[in-house]
Amino acid sequence: MSEEITIPTASQSEAEAGSVTDKAMTPLRTKQAIDAQTVSLDVLALSSGAGMVGIRNDRSQADKNAEGPSIFDFIPPAERAAILAGTSTYDATDDFNQAFAEMDGTGLTLLVPGGTYRVRKLMIGGSNFTINSHGAWLHQMPGLRVDNNIHPILSILPTAHDVDIGNWYFRGNIDFDAAAFPGGEDGYMHGIAIASAKNITVGDIYGEDILGDLLYTYGRNTSEAEMIRNLRVGVVRGSNIYRCIVALVGAECRIEGIIQEGPVGFRDLDVEPNNASGTYQAVEADIGFVTGSQVSIISADADVINKSVRIGTLDLDGSRLANSSAPYPRYQGVGAIALALMNCDTTSIGEMRLQNYASYPVNMTSNWRELSIGSLYFANCGAADNTLKGIFVQRALDQDRNELPPPEGAVLRIGKVTGRLESSVIALPGSAGRRLVASFSGRIRVEIGSAKVSNGMIASGVSGSIDVDGEWDFGEGYNEIAILGCRKLIVTGMKATNAATTYGMYGSEEITLIGCEGEFGVGFDYTGASTNIVSIGKPIVG
Fold this sequence. Notes:
Blueprint: H1 27-46, H2 61-67, H3 80-85, H4 93-103, E1 109-112, E2 115-119, E3 122-124, E4 127-133, E5 136-140, E6 154-156, E7 161-164, E8 168-171, H5 174-180, E9 192-195, E10 198-202, E11 205-210, E12 215-218, E13 231-241, E14 244-249, E15 252-260, E16 267-271, E17 284-292, E18 295-298, E19 306-317, E20 339-342, E21 344-357, E22 362-364, E23 368-381, E24 390-394, E25 396-397, E26 403-404, E27 411-420, E28 435-439, E29 444-448, E30 451-454, E31 457-460, E32 462-473, E33 480-484, E34 487-497, E35 502-506, E36 509-514, E37 517-519, E38 531-536, E39 540-541
Parallel strand pairs: 1-4, 2-5, 3-6, 4-7, 5-8, 6-9, 7-10, 8-11, 9-12, 10-13, 11-13, 12-14, 13-15, 14-16, 15-17, 16-18, 17-19, 18-20, 19-21, 20-22, 21-23, 22-24, 23-27, 24-28, 27-29, 27-30, 28-31, 29-32, 31-33, 32-34, 33-35, 34-36, 34-37, 36-38, 37-39
Antiparallel strand pairs: 25-26
């Protein structure tokens, strides 16, 4: 049996500040039950014939070699029916760990018939084998949380490489274990923990009632042997997860998708690491899609700048926000930020949707170089935020909460953005000064190909270019300012509408308007504090 390793459990990043007990037959559980029942019937039908893989402990070694191994070669015959029926209380931990050890280096496939297996902590430390699991659940025994060390249902150890673990369903004991050990705020009863392994393939996984992260990775940069290389994962779905559906604490990985199917206490995707004097592996992640409510791409260690995070489709909706049944202490709730970015070189998103966030939805802070978004749609975002007032907010703070300048050379690129700015300030018309981009204590560069935005201002604290290519409805700005504190900004194709109570700009310089037209009713330049303003092609009045 592989020996267990101890993985440090530093606190979750401090860069950012519903019970699920109904086991009704949801579409997902129906599919799982059908998968399990199909395999169970196959197992029972073939149990008396030579064609079944591993149904009997009394098979000869020759038969096992010819037919392939099964976990039922290791589990007592009297326990199998209850496992297949999903009612077993038998502890199958030692059986699984023995099977994994015997599979090491064989190149064979281990069959795990559908059912529910009660286990403590399973460990894979070998290489060159595959697991074929048909609708199988791993349900962790309660009462294992005796300290703040990790106790995953399944651990992939640093010695593991070239293993395909297949598809799994994981169930923890979030309420029981949280009540049994209330001393610490973090939970480390992960679904899968992968530490420093190479060439690991994980299929589609689903987890519920997990007192920790559903998928947790741990890689360090202190040696090649400690890094995670070529990790491939299918679709990861989670419900009633105490911390994160996916937490990447150092990894090089590809993930097909991440789906929030119920309450999550911290993040759907958390790209860390924590602060450990620069010893964690920088993350390189390629993710097909994320459907959830919160994504954090934050290294809390300024000496570890994550290399790249690529997400094909990012669909974040504040209406999905819900804390786990054992409440996570740092759950953000109604003031949640959809996407937070810090200490990451490049972040690219193909298609992004942001909906139903009371606060500003996107926060960029320090040490990021590029955020690129192909297309963005936003709705009902930022209405309750009466301070920073942006969809994209660049604001970094030091330990004493003093504002820091933006990272030098940082650029926000958006191919096309569509949305309506909102305000909850009933006494004021329009968006009460909400704007698409707001940068504080310095400027960031923006490159926006097409902006179809209504009911608010354009930007503050930016340089670069914005192609409006049509109307910009300022929503009766009520003495707000369309372009505030910007420098070396080019705006093209804008027709200013509904701007009778809006100023054109203030505190800006080297602003070029190309093919823009319209009238700012209360004046083009508030107090005349802007310089080097040029309009080419059409007149702007104010």
